[in-house]
Write a structure and sequence with these properties.
Elements lengths: L1 H27 L5 E6 L7 H14 L8 E6 L7 H10 L4 E5 L1 H10 L5 E5 L19 E5 L6 H11 L5 E6 L4 H17 L2 E6 L3 H14 L3 E4 L3 H5 L1 H11 L3 E3 L2 H5 L4 E4 L2 H16 L16 E5 H6 L6 H6 L2 E3 L1
Parallel strand pairs: 1-2, 1-3, 3-4, 4-5, 6-7, 6-8, 8-9, 9-10, 11-12
Antiparallel strand pairs: 10-11
Helix pairs in contact: 2-11, 3-4, 7-9
Length: about 325
């Protein structure tokens, strides 16, 4: 009888242990890494770009909700919200922060010196102080630049080639965007070298864009150059509607504008840049150090023309310009 009681106790202890073991094992499993996605734009405006970022993460082996958790923070074109949003991701804490836009990258860098940061910017990351070197960034930051701020001269030249008359060219600049401001400086230098008369209009909000176009109507420029800015990308429908109403040939920074009805764009492919950022985030999650990952730069720039818009403006695009185009939208 005593031996049977001992066996029963041992069996009961084993059963309890078998119940507790999964709980203990679960407690020892590492928490799912968190990727902070910090953007100055809105969720609805960035659907395709965010999908490209996730797809790149998937290809590196990280799937949102399975073995990584992506936490999104959108500033909705309110740049002053980015420092607080970056601080939220640091407090989460995120395993790595993907910061999109110059202001977002600088906000993330100011918020942490230990959490890895992968940025994406149209600015020169050296010039704006995001990294110390493109080849060896150092610290906890690396990323992708699509160098939009340095393409102003080329965009101005292409815009001048569109019209027989280009006595006065206007440029729309977003004063809250370092990329836009730096591009304005680049264009102003090029305009002086070409003897081109240039007028700069500033706008950063929907109301300011309307006021800028009212000013544009009074000045009657021969063409318009819209600088690179995340705010302008978010408000591209408003911009294109205003440009169409005033019947002015306009140059844009990315294909998203020409796809939406803009006349011409020249710049890096944003989808590619978001994918590159996703790949780098995956590499960091696998253990690579940002300091050892060189800042990625675009290997090519796209010239996209909208033939339908050109015809509506009464513009005859030259065969040489059409031959240069990477894509012509019929």
């Amino acid at each position: 009888m005593r031996r049977r009681a001992v066996v029963t106790l041992i069996s009961g202890a084993a059963a309890v242990a078998s119940l507790l073991w999964p709980l203990a094992a679960g407690a020892q499993q590492p928490a799912m890494p968190v990727v902070g996605f910090l953007s100055s734009r809105t969720a609805t405006d960035t659907v395709g770009l965010a999908a490209a970022f996730r797809q790149a993460l998937n290809e590196v082996g990280f799937v949102d909700g399975r073995n990584v958790a992506i936490e999104y923070r959108w500033a909705a074109n309110q740049a002053d919200q980015l420092p607080a949003l970056a601080a939220e991701l640091v407090g989460r804490p995120a395993s790595v922060i993907a910061a999109f836009g110059t202001v977002g990258a600088l906000a993330a860098k100011a918020a942490t010196t230990t959490i890895p940061i992968v940025f994406m910017t149209g600015d020169d990351p050296l010039k704006v102080g995001i990294v110390a070197s493109l080849a060896r960034p150092g610290g906890n930051v690396t990323g992708v630049t699509f160098v939009s701020a340095t393409l102003g001269t080329k965009r101005l030249q292409l815009l001048r080639s569109l019209t027989a008359k280009s006595e006065l060219i206007a440029m729309l600049v977003d004063p809250s965007s370092p990329e836009s401001v730096n591009q304005a400086s680049d264009v102003a230098d090029a305009a002086r070298a070409l003897g081109q008369q240039l007028v700069v209009l500033h706008a950063g909000t929907a109301n300011e864009i309307d006021l800028a176009f009212a000013n544009l109507a009074q000045r009657r420029p021969d063409a318009l150059l819209i600088s690179g800015s995340s705010t302008f990308l978010s408000r591209r429908d408003q911009l294109i509607t205003s440009v169409t109403r005033h019947k002015v040939p306009a140059m844009y920074s990315h294909r998203e504008f020409t796809m939406a009805g803009g006349l011409i764009s020249y710049g890096a492919n944003l989808l590619d840049s978001y994918r590159q950022a996703g790949f780098y985030v995956g590499r960091v999650l696998r253990g690579d150090k940002p300091a050892d990952l060189p800042v990625m730069q675009p290997t090519r720039f796209e010239l996209v023309l909208n033939l339908k818009t050109a015809k509506a403006l009464g513009l005859e695009l030259s065969p040489s310009l059409l031959a240069l185009a990477d894509e012509v939208i019929e």
